[in-house]
Queue: 2 jobs
Job 1
Amino acid sequence: MKLVILGGGESGTGAALLGKKLGYEVFLSDKKNIDEVHKAILVKEAIPFEEGVHTEERILVADLVVKSPGIPDTVPMIKALQAKGIEVISEIELAGRHSDAIMICITGSNGKTTTTLLIHHILVQAGMDAGLAGNVGHSLAAQVAENAHPLYVVELSSFQLDGMFRFQADIAVLTNVTPDHLDRYDYKFENYVNSKFRILNNMGKEGLFIYGYDCEVVRQRVIGQKLLPQAVPFTYGGEPDLQQAGGTACAYMEGDTIVVRLDEKVFRMDKNDVSIKGRHNVYNAMAAILACMRAGVDPGAIAAGLKSFPQVEHRLETVAVVAGVTYINDSKATNVDSAWYALDSMTHPVVWIAGGTDKGNDYTVLYELVKQKVKALVCMGVDNRKLIENFSGICPVADTHSLEEALAAVQKYACEGDTVLLSPCCASFDLFKNYEQRGELFKEKVRQLK
């Protein structure tokens, strides 16, 4: 079988390794340059590859194609493959076809990375052999090929879900769905919602589907259809109407106590004992508790994992306190909903740094929070007009076009006791390679302020 892989990053290289182990004739093609780490793996394993070009004669003869999630279905090469009837799948789909492991899968517009890492942390701390894969950790295909585990915790983006067809999650988590990546979905929110709900594909009645009840889009979709897996809601409110919610299990709040009911077991924990703070992290904790309870983790081990979980890099990560001002790196907040939760969790006056590549954002949902919490907005982007138009009547706004300019502007507004919050609301691609680079550079520059 001829296996062609498009994209030479983590997922593509992992797919190549699995393809080689399966005895396929593997060829990898990346239209950009392949980084040195992954190129060295391909060379070592004697896997043929090309970079800087896609050679049609070598690609269109494939029996099966695995494409990077970053490649849209609309590009000419994918259209050409589809026209020839060649199957195009994701690396996750390839790995799933060759693994019998239990799959705990997490998706959502916001919270999926923290929830994924939290579930994995609890499982490992409890002594379970669990792999970490998808958007975080190492390639699932590479692990199936070289370092197989009986259980995987897999973070799934909508792009990865779009390339999954026979893959089946045993435990699925959908945190929420808010407008994001609409440029990949014909600017139709419904298309993006449909993509997220693909996490339910192939799940049977023995599966567990954990969903964010407080997200109206998700709640209405779940209530409006008959699902095969057990559907379990989690909410920041009181115990939901379980008959309406579609099940007999749930997670909810009793004052400051997180209460989780599943499989005739009850778990209770004070939210203040969870190491990561804020309402959004209560949601993440609830989803993680439900998943770990179903995976068979002892309640004491779940509580211990929740107490010992470290901060997630680039997600409300405290960087430093300089002259009494706390600097927080929330670079992973690339959409409005993420920024909402970040601002909601702030307890001191905020100098807010936002901006980047706008993805069709509607900022109106932030107005009330900005009135309550933000003493100044520092815009950081190539084109800040939309942010300026939305917030200039609510708080002072500074227009800056680099990280250095932004931090200089921050000094004019931030006083002892304030918080400087980098929570951009936007993608990073106008000034930075990705949100990780944006966060790393922010931390580096802040530490130089001392």
Job 2
Amino acid sequence: MTGALSHIRVLDLSRILAGPWASQILGDLGAEVIKVERPGVGDDTRSWGPPFLKDETGRDTDTAAYFLSANRNKRSITLDMAKPEGQALIRELAGRSDVLLENFKVGGLQQYGLDYAALKAINPRLVYSSITGFGQTGPYANRAGYDFLIQGLGGLMSLTGLPDGREGAGPMKVGVALTDVLTGLYATSAILAALVHREKTGEGQYIDVSLLDVQVACLANQALNYCTTGQSPKRLGNAHPSIVPYEDFPTADGYMILAIGNDAQFARFCAEAGQAELAEDPRFATNAERVRNRAALIPLLRRITVTRETSAWVRALEAKAIPCGPINDLAGVFADPQVKAREMQLSLPHPGLGPIPQVASPIRLSGSPVTYRRAPPQLGEHTSEVLRDVLGLSEQRIEQLRRQGIV
């Protein structure tokens, strides 16, 4: 085992995306992650397809690409926690773990004796992280929470989509389950902080992370725009509420993004476009004036940008340090020379499934780098291994548990 967290064992009772995203990050950083799944069913995302992973003969397997996105560097075991024997095994594993991660409904694990209070009595050093839709308190605490629902309730969709009055206007969710991903990142940060605290005090602690809290926190500048003015920001499509020009523009063969962040960049753009006088126009000379007069400026710029192809604009503007770029589909993303240079696409070998495609971690550590030790596991692939190596169970006992339907 290598990595900054190679001394840490994570017992992962979570499924779908937010929890598995967090445990995958911990696994990438070297932690031993034991993923507990329901016998015969497993994590819901195993069946969230198509697309499904293809085997070496080109036929679909029963593992969805969705599952593969968040479950590398883990060992999968199957346990029936509805049975007392399964609960006892999870308690034993928790007693030998540093972190427990779960995303059951509020109070959902208490009926099994697997809540924080019960497990803290067994292992006071345990860091226990709960991820829920709405948190452990408040009037919505018992509701189920899903990313799409939270993007709407938490305000993100009110900021995303074309503005009213435009064809196709209306609220729009982000194309990735971003609230889940951000919640996984916040949960990871909280777990790491709790582990540092434990190094100082010897004590574990309970972590309460909710999708709604995370979504509200990640409204960022838009939240402060509202808190400062009392006015709810409106949808602007790809435009920026506080910077102009900062949006997509048509070109001779498609679209490009201009992300001009200051007045000097705007002046250089106007000069390159052969319209230097625009930067001297008092309506457009400063960013504040450009924001106030965006309705006049943007149509002028769109008439300019359609005169060249995207690649020609990108070459010319990059040479003058003016932020711009193409709008890639995912084929373009993974063909991009910078993405290739950073080795963001990789594959991991699996003895039963062949090479499994993966997207690399963006974390680059010089002294304790991320490692890719295990491909996403098949359901229950490591049950015997974990019960034998971690809990010391005999092969006879493991076989007895299988016959009883506990594992």
